[in-house]
Write a structure and sequence with these properties.
The structure is a homodimer. Chain A is an alpha/beta fold. Chain A has three domains: about 50 residues, Orthogonal Bundle (434 Repressor (Amino-terminal Domain)); about 120 residues, 3-Layer(aba) Sandwich (Rossmann fold); about 130 residues, Rossmann fold (3-Layer(aba) Sandwich), CATH 3.40.50. Chain A contains 13 helices and twelve strands. At the A-B interface, helix 4, helix 5, strand 2, helix 6 and helix 10 of A face helix 4, helix 5, strand 2, helix 6 and helix 10 of B. Chain A binds a DNA duplex through helix 2 and helix 4.
Chain lengths: ~325, ~325
DNA sequence: ACCAGGACTTAAAGCGCTTTAAAAAGTTCT
DNA sequence: AGAACTTTTTAAAGCGCTTTAAGTCCTGGT
């Protein structure tokens, strides 16, 4: 049980070494001033007492909080990766993270309010859905860094990967394997889907495969992938490769094809997008595109810190190149 | 951009309505005292100014923090579910959550330190790995609630599901479908694996199927499931049903069987455990056991609140019954 | 000796809010 | 009208820490 009054305070440490709280504070934060002797004694005393600074009090007293608010969808495996890297990146520059999750019951607004209530100095929003002007309003309270979503015409910082390029890499890879008849399962409306679709079209044209362009209706779900595959199966002529909007959809395609007796990748190669946990399952072993969570996290933190500590005020967009991850679901076109 | 000095303070609101900060504070927290007229005026002023209390200051001033620290493995989909429900449960009793993730780079210790630095009044640890005495030491600083892990002989509160019962339900279900030859793919050492294995054995005996008990070596991975399945395939006589330690392993089994031309559930039924996102994929449609995240979350919060607000000091263990979720991977035994 | 200057240390004033004791304002009753 | 309350409001003292201006001590130079 917690012994209510037992938590040692700065004053207790100070009393123990017979110094002022000011000196102790200085030592504990590694600030210059205290002599070596004092430093040692204070550190010893603090350790003896198991002293741990009260963040709230520290933050309140210093005008800064050195806290970055991160809004994350706790259900997304990709966000999980991002958070992990955000943690390390933030730590390196002396910031701490406060997370707030948006869930069915807790919308973006509440999540962000919580972040602000904790005095976050900047907000890193992972895949926010709110409209641009809402985010701009927020930006007036604290610098906002949007991760993973394209945003045009705002003054917000944006960190994302080049989705069109990613699909382009998939197409290049497939073409390199000898495929020419490459279908694409679309991801619906939405900025990301649009970019990826364009990436597919552009890449196909680049390879002189204009005639082969074939976009199937779909969305981000497994079911959509299955529907698209069934459509292909019914349509008579199967393409030799299928690229999908994301991994989930790709898995739908893969499952439906396999169930219909079409070998993957033997007869048809299948590729996804996102490199999420699913794609790594050995039973799928899906060739996909990785969104380089670490790089995105680093850039997001850097963007925030530049605003906070270096007075940058101009918006900046960082667009990272995605990385093709070849696994077992794609192979050379069969004769 | 954040306009540094712009954040309105309690004092600003007070000045605007010509009252003391004390009155404003009272109104804003819904405390009794202020008259209706005052209340309205204050609320209006606060809204006009876009005032939002500074949590740090509030927490520091009140001796309480009303904060529950939650340690979560950000990569676990099950934890994600738990967090979501913890949020709502905590909100209902007027607490807020502060999350700290353990990752490869951030071990449990640091995660928990962060939680304490934020002045969490109690700690809810999701699937902690630390040894019992470490947790007990922590418990002396703040009440600890362990979720999802069995802990004997400690004074900690524990909330978990009855793993043996869960596997028992799976066996019952399979037996109900006419299966008698039911193999089990083990989950290795570890408390949870032990419980589930025992659940399997007990249930089999209860149905008079002692002779049929067959435990295959395994762990928590998909690969283990595949190995086990291959072993079954090589062994000559296939069981008519296989229950696995968890969903991942079950999926390995399922994939290996399918690949070998064994129809699932046509020839062999397969069941998993955990009801994680994987099992819901239509291409698997895995019969599994749900750990009832919501109920566990509620009990965890309740346990913490009882310690905090109702002075409970005796340890309590809440063991919830898991819930069988029947999907498409199990069916009546073929003739 | 005496003082400038450097090296440490500390008193004291907050940070923005809660809380409590006490004052102020209203009511009711005789 | 004044006593005896009750309802509102507020002054002031913190919460645990940071920060800055102001010391206190030494050293060495003259």
């Amino acid at each position: 049980m917690a012994d209510a009054g037992s938590r040692p305070r700065l004053e207790d440490v100070a009393a123990r070494v017979g110094l002022s709280t000011a000196s102790v504070s200085l030592v504990l934060r590694g600030a210059p001033g205290p002599s070596e002797r004092t430093r040692q004694r204070v550190l010893k005393a603090a350790a003896d007492l198991g002293y741990q600074a009260d963040r709230n009090a520290s933050l309140l007293a210093s005008r800064r909080s050195r806290l970055l608010g991160v809004m994350v969808d706790v259900h997304s495996p990709f966000h999980a990766d991002l958070v992990e890297h955000l943690h390390t990146a933030a730590e390196e520059v002396g910031y701490d993270l406060v997370l707030s999750t948006q869930t069915r019951s807790r919308d973006e607004h509440t999540a962000v309010e919580t972040l602000l209530a904790f005095r976050s100095e900047a907000l890193i929003l992972l895949g926010p859905l709110a409209p641009a002007d809402t985010l701009m309003a927020l930006h007036r309270k604290a610098p906002v860094v949007v991760v993973g979503r394209r945003m045009t015409g705002t003054e917000l910082d944006v960190v994302r990967t080049a989705d069109d390029d990613g699909v382009g890499q998939i197409v290049d890879h497939l073409v390199g394997l000898g495929h020419r008849s490459i279908a694409y399962v679309d991801g619906g409306k939405g900025v990301i889907a649009t970019d990826r679709r364009r990436g597919y079209r552009t890449a196909m044209r680049r390879h002189g495969l204009d005639e082969q362009i074939r976009v199937l209706h779909g969305d981000h779900t497994e079911a959509a992938g299955e529907r698209a595959a069934r459509q292909l199966l019914d349509g008579g002529q199967l393409p030799t490769a299928v690229a999908a909007f994301n991994d989930q959809s790709a898995i739908g395609v893969l499952a439906a094809l396999t169930r219909a007796g079409v070998a993957v990748p033997g007869a048809v190669s299948v590729a996804g997008y996102d490199d999420d946990a699913l794609s790594r399952l050995s039973c799928f072993s899906l060739t996909t595109v990785s969104q380089t969570a670490e790089a995105q996290a680093r850039h997001a933190v850097t963007a925030a810190v530049e605003r906070l500590d270096e007075g940058r005020t101009a918006a900046r967009e960082v667009v990272l190149p995605p990385r093709l991850t070849v696994r077992g679901s794609t192979t050379v076109k069969s004769a």
